[in-house]
Amino acid sequence: xxxxxxxxxxxxxxxxxxxxxxxxxxxxxxxxxxxxxxxxxxxxxxxxxxxxxxxxxxxxxxxxxxxxxxxxxxxxxxxxxxxxxxxxxxxxxxxxxxxxxxxxxxxxxxxxxxxxxxxxxxxxxxxxxxxxxxxxxxxxxxxxxxxxxxxxxxxxxxxxxxxxxxxxxxxxxxxxxxxxxxxxxxxxxxxxxxxxxxxxxxxxxxxxxxxxxxxxxxxxxxxxxxxxxxxxxxxxxxxxxxxxxxxxxxxxxxxxxxxxxxxxxxxxxxxxxxxxxxxxxxxxxxxxxxxxxxxxxxxxxxxxxxxxxxxxxxxxxxxxxxxxxxxxxxxxxxxxxxxxxxxxxxxxxxxxxxxxxxxxxxxxxxxxxxxxxxxxxxxxxxxxxxxxxxxxxxxxxxxxxxxxxxxxxxxxxxxxxxxxxxxxxxxxxxxxxxxxxxxxxxxxxxxxxxxxxxxxxxxxxxxxxxxxxxxxxxxxxxxxxxxxxxxxxxxxxxxxxxxxxxxxxxxxxxxxxxxxxxxxxxxxxxxxxxxxxxxxxxxxxxxxxxxxxxxxxxxxxxxxxxxxxxxxxxxxxxxxxx
Amino acid sequence: xxxxxxxxxxxxxxxxxxxxxxxxxxxxxxxxxxxxxxxxxxxxxxxxxxxxxxxxxxxxxxxxxxxxxxxxxxxxxxxxxxxxxxxxxxxxxxxxxxxxxxxxxxxxxxxxxxxxxxxxxxxxxxxxxxxxxxxxxxxxxxxxxxxxxxxxxxxxxxxxxxxxxxxxxxxxxxxxxxxxxxxxxxxxxxxxxxxxxxxxxxxxxxxxxxxxxxxxxxxxxxxxxxxxxxxxxxxxxxxxxxxxxxxxxxxxxxxxxxxxxxxxxxxxxxxxxxxxxxxxxxxxxxxxxxxxxxxxxxxxxxxxxxxxxxxxxxxxxxxxxxxxxxxxxxxxxxxxxxxxxxxxxxxxxxxxxxxxxxxxxxxxxxxxxxxxxxxxxxxxxxxxxxxxxxxxxxxxxxxxxxxxxxxxxxxxxxxxxxxxxxxxxxxxxxxxxxxxxxxxxxxxxxxxxxxxxxxxxxxxxxxxxxxxxxxxxxxxxxxxxxxxxxxxxxxxxxxxxxxxxxxxxxxxxxxxxxxxxxxxxxxxxxxxxxxxxxxxxxxxxxxxxxxxxxxxxxxxxxxxxxxxxxxxxxxxxxxxxx
Lengths: 578, 578
Hints:
- Chains A, B: One of its GO terms (molecular function) is hydroxymethylpyrimidine kinase activity.
- Chains A, B: Keywords: Kinase, Transferase.
- The structure is a homodimer.
- Chain A is α/β, with parallel strands linked by helices.
- Chain A has 2 domains: about 15-200 and about 280-325, Ribokinase (UDP-N-acetylmuramoyl-L-alanine:D-glutamate ligase, 3-Layer(aba) Sandwich); about 355-575, Up-down Bundle (Heme Oxygenase, Chain A), CATH 1.20.910.
- Chain A is about 55% helix and about 10% strand.
- Chain A has 21 helices and 12 strands.
- In chain A, strands 1, 2, 3, 4, 5, 6, 7, 8, 9, 10 and 11 form an 11-stranded mixed sheet that branches.
- In chain A, helix 14 packs antiparallel against helix 18, helix 17 packs antiparallel against helix 21 (about 550-575) and helix 18 crosses helix 19 (about 515-525).
- The two termini of chain A are about 35 Å apart.
- Residues about 1-5 of chain A have low confidence and may be disordered.
- The interface between A and B is large, with 142 and 142 residues.
- Strand 12 of chain A pairs antiparallel with strand 12 of chain B.
């Protein structure tokens, strides 16, 4: 437990990824798919729109072109020293003059130009031409030379490469594909080419054999079921699939090929069988720009080329988004872009809410919390009116409780994984031992001998509370235990500070108050220091690994139970009950 | 552990929320903010664009209007029985003819019209008029009567209400605000009005007093620090804030007012001090449409009005997104829309990857896994060539191991929270006891007496493995323990099935093989049935509560360690080492 000050309240920033593309009113492709992808991967997305489409899962019903000068106007707004992106993807650019204007804009940026990913949206999956000839020429001759990474599908690669030299045929084998990717890179001089092989299913065994024979590095897609591609037959998974009535992985695979200065790499995976593939190309290129930008942020510097890992991540994200898609519309539905998103229940601490976890816990049971920390027992302690037998009964039981509470911290030390936490638990155990000594002294003052103290039986309220903490600590992990011990630590601090405030307003007194020592101890610097450290520690742990909704529900349940047991502990003192 | 078949592979669907608004090239407002909000809250977003803006954090540099007929064309694509949304929000509608066309479109839908939220983007935070007069008239007279919920800010509410009757003044008190909201609803007949009070800071104490005096229900915003508004003074949090050098919550609050047929409710919270507020109104109205749609999905039916809870969720999300914003641009920066998003590391099981967790674990250490399940020891068992002393040494140690392995399942029963899991652990403990009996019989056959078996010391490899499992089980929670015991369960199944396959190809034999019984046992129906249930159980637990990245790292570490210890256990047998 380091100093309380080390809980960070600084917001976490995100890299900025811009998409320059068309709008899909249906939300499945274009800038809509791009913005969803960028957000899902952890980036901040902005968009320059080149054309609007009226579109659904069945097709495109209308297109409204945005004038080239307004496309540039949108870009100007971003680049006017305000929202300069870390990476850009180009999608549907629609018209020759738009493409020329964009090429001019980025050429003028010179070395200040961000990492540019171009998805040359020219030929659709079904073979339809999506760009007029003049636009294709502008794309290939003007824009392509400026980009860092191009992501053509097979028909696009054939068109582009053929336009720059001898006409190439549609590839039929892996060797053809590798040759096409290499020719494209050579002829266009684009630093990195990712040739998307989705149009060509290849037998898994042929791919493995060719890759081996040619010494090509192969990255198997980890979004699908594990199989022999991962370097080990998994009989037990195949058996399980059969037992569940599920098909084994297809014998055919899809190969994407990355060629850059470092060589050729194959990204191989089984095809996801799905009709939810609308926007796949948009998603992949947005994911590539995002994973590049995120890697740049992690590394603290921008690389000239995209890494193999970033490409692998983008491909896996896209495959996973197809696999997780739910049916929508009557035609080719959208991907599920948020399939890797889970809801965070406790936000990062911020200046607006620096203790979001403890605030959440207290808000989960405000009435019970108030009954605990504003109990008549502590009110009477503050006024000095609490009957002495009630306090005696309480302090004897609390002495027993403290022994088990100290044991819980021993258990916490056992459950810790780092020496810092072990030390913190051991220190608290020592504090509790000192607190216990104070109890012995107090008891003697109130006429309870150490022998009477030791031999007194435990009341139900005391045993129920201390054993609940120990059981949670044994059953759960160290975080469960932290929450189980927090109500006692924090609640006594709350009582101490509250009584301190009441002293100032005359609602409590230390004069002639037999419990003055008790009040001073729990509002004193040493105890309150421990409370402050406890609060910071708990918030820091939660911020470092925010609980899932299920986990938070369990932690909240533990909190509510220990708050209730604390309240009942005061009541036991007041009633002198067993 | 119920039947293996109950692991669901069905994708989880999302409600569809449409935004009809302008595009903000900077990504912070307009449809960009809306799409980010819808995705963050768990919806599927689509967008009909009414205007493009060239915009950044400093202002709007240009506007390109989309013709009204193309706005309707976009809507037609969605409503042509393909992508009909569950809720719609209207943002910047820009022009009178667009507004009239939209009003006509939705009026013609009649009862088939979805839940409509209107953010009347007419007057900016700074008081600038954003809509021409003709458009304002169309908005108020034609579109407003069709919507389910309107979300004006104070200046907009004054303009709209005044246009429908006696001119109203700018409100100065909570009473004024409540009266304005009520007048607006009465005069426009909009079923629900959410009046956004962001323009008017009010003293916290006045709000509390007025609400009490008028009997208004108050919902305190839980996105900020807990304070006396939550019904309890929290001295301990105030003390902690001071100790951290942080300011206490502002004495002023912001009040949003919801008025509908059920009455008036106040949503009160402290203002987030931030310049990152660009797109706040867009975000709130998109969040309202999303939380309505999500609630509809949860309840299985569409309510006529939005619930208090859904409004509270939308306000808290928006406040939290401002609080979590990081600096971007030189002016009013965007909100952080993904502040509640955390990265899910293991996707939901799908047909593409039905066992994502176990596939992930095995992929995390394929070499070690291969060394374990294809160890020379088991190869020699399959061929019957393993030296008898090696097998004897192994089986004696495995007998010891099984005792602790059974204890680990007893610990699992202790750590379980439901009777079903306790039963499952107890059943496995019984299976292990039976397996152990088989070991005794095997030992006797190989000339090891029960006495020798019991009194044999434990080898280091055996003790290291079994005690590692018990320690993980004691230190962590039940999921840690499930992973710690999984390598033994699943790996022995893998070995059994692999040897079974080798029997078929002649690479293993049962004839004259002294270990035939061992092979049959671990590839037999009873054992493999347990393996299948174990796989389903683990995947189901992970799917129900997907681990955070930190949690997954811990689980992966446990897995890799038990795989290594299993490999070393075979090696210990082969080497007859201690």
